Each structure stands twice: as C-alpha cells, then as structure tokens.
C-alpha cells in the first residue's frame, strides 16, 4: 500500500523494516555525524574499523485510541507503539601497534534521549498490550530482524564516503507491564513480584535491603520450555514454583531497569502512613491518641 489510507480495512499493524528504519534514522543524523568527525579532524578518514551505534528500544501501550464518531473498521480500540532512539554513534579506532586493540571515540550523543522528537516509530499495532499472542505474532518478526542486525553491518554513504555501521540494542524503554508481557512472566498481580529476581511477594516484604538481578531472557526461555513440557511430571503448583512465574514464551529481550525493583512493595504502606499524619497535622501534636489516628484513617 502506498499510504495508510490504501491499506485493507482489517489491517491491525503498520511497520517499517528495521534495517530500513535504522538507515533512515542515520541518514537524518548525517550532519551531526559529520560535525563530530570534523571536530576530531576525521571527516576525510575512511574509518575502516566502522562505527558502533547504540539503539534504545521502547514499547508501550497508547491506551484507548477508538474513534468517538463515525463508522470505522471493527478493530480493537487499544494501540501499542514500538519505537527506537539512536542514543549514540561511536567510531572504532586502531590503538597503537596491535591491530587487535581498539578504542572507541564518541562521535554523536543524543542530547535529549527521552524526548519524543528523538524517538522514531517502528511499528504501530491496534492491539491490547495484554494480548500476548497477537503481540508475539506482530513483534516476533521485529525481534528476528533485530537479532539478524546484531551480527551484520549496514553500509551507508555519509559525507560522500561509504561508512560501515554495527548496532547494539538496549531494550530499556519498557514499563513493568510490558516487560512481564514480552518476557513471558505472569501479570503484575503475581506472587512473583519482581521482574529482576525470583522473589515472591512474601519474601520481598521480609527482605527490603538485599537485591540482585538474577533473571535473564535466556533463563526465561529455558523455564518456559520446562513449563511447556513438564519433564518432571510435577503438579501445577510444583511446576509453577520451579519456573518462578514464567507462563508464556518470552519473545523480546529486555534490559533490567529500576522501576521493577521489588522494594516498591512497601512504598504504598509508607506513603499511607505519611498521608495519615498529614491529614491529622501530626507535626502540631506531640502524642496523638489512638482515636485521633482512627479518625485520620477514616478521612483517608
């Protein structure tokens, strides 16, 4: 289809091919890349070792996008957007006598990495982000293209010379709900409260200090296979305990991010106490009675 309007009425997703989108994004940055090379006196260098590009991937639900008037096609009324940001472009430089040794020199760094202006859309889907099957079907090919690009290079004409680009991907622009969905974990009401480790809700509430990142995409894939095949012929509860809340096939690798840490389990309780004290203006009183505290709780 030449434009969105030419697409069939039952289309639920529109996307760019990943390599084409990355090439387009880098061509948009041609001036910035050349400025970075000029500052270092390298604008005429062939840069034979190539450039390394850091890509941040993001995916989130866009909420209700239904048309409030008029009759459109009967598609789901929620949408999901998958996008990426070019975080930095660095140049590989040969370091000294040894050809194996190389250093990297930063050529371009995105000044506003969280701005919507630097965020390039890759795929738009009319789908509920909780619908794991449809999300897998739509984003599976995106993940396959991304994996292919990890071990290949893109050659583009930048500043009149062919330049070679390799890519590193960081899937860090996901909220907890999306991380659980793409990594095959149970939804956020699960006993397994953390997307970074195997803690249960009870364990997390007992241990508010010691944390470590133990989950990984590869481990989630292995656990899904155990969940699917049940090789030890265990009961449903035993099997669930063995796989620590993995219940669907993970299809996108994500980077650990802070918003998933399980210490947020007790934040609600702490804020609740603070709000009660604010309602009762406890800073004015030395020792409030139990009845007073009850009335504040009722007000809250």
Automatic annotation (TrEMBL):
Top-level EC class as recorded in UniProt: transferase
V(D)J recombination-activating protein 1 ZnC2 domain residues: 192-254
| Domain V(D)J recombination-activating protein 1 pre-RNase H, first and last residues per copy | 2-48
**Which key words tag this protein in UniProt?**
Acyltransferase, Transferase
Mention one GO molecular function. Answer: double-stranded DNA endonuclease activity
Cite the V(D)J recombination-activating protein 1 RNase H domain residue spans from the record: 53-190
What's the protein called, per UniProt? Recombination-activating protein 1
Q: Which organism is it from?
A: Barathronus roulei
State which gene encodes it. Answer: RAG1
């Amino acid at each position: 289809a030449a434009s969105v309007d030419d697409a069939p009425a039952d289309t639920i997703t529109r996307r760019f091919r990943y390599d084409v989108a990355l090439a387009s994004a880098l061509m948009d940055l041609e001036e910035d890349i050349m400025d970075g090379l000029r500052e270092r006196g390298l604008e005429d260098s062939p840069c034979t070792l190539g450039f390394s590009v850091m890509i941040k991937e993001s995916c989130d639900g866009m909420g209700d996008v239904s048309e409030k008037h008029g009759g459109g096609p009967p598609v789901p009324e929620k949408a999901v957007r998958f996008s990426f940001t070019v975080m930095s472009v660095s140049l590989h430089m040969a370091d000294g006598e040894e050809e194996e040794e190389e250093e990297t020199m930063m050529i371009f760094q995105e000044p506003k990495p969280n701005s919507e202006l630097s965020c390039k859309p890759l795929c738009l889907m009319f789908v509920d982000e909780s619908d794991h099957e449809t999300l897998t079907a739509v984003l599976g090919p995106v993940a396959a293209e991304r994996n292919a690009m990890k071990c290949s290079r893109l050659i583009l004409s930048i500043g009149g010379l062919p330049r070679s680009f390799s890519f590193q991907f960081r899937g860090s622009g996901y909220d907890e709900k999306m991380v659980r969905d793409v990594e095959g974990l149970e939804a956020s009401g699960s006993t397994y409260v953390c997307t970074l480790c195997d803690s249960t809700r009870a364990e997390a509430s007992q241990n508010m200090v010691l944390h470590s990142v133990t989950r990984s995409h590869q481990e989630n894939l292995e656990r899904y296979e155990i969940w699917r095949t049940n090789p030890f012929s265990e009961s449903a509860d035993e099997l669930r305990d063995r796989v620590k809340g993995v219940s669907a096939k993970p299809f996108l690798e994500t980077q650990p991010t802070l918003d998933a840490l399980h210490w947020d389990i007790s934040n609600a309780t702490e804020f609740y106490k603070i709000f009660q004290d604010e309602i009762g203006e406890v800073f004015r009183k030395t020792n409030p009675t139990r009845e007073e505290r009850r009335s504040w709780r009722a007000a809250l």
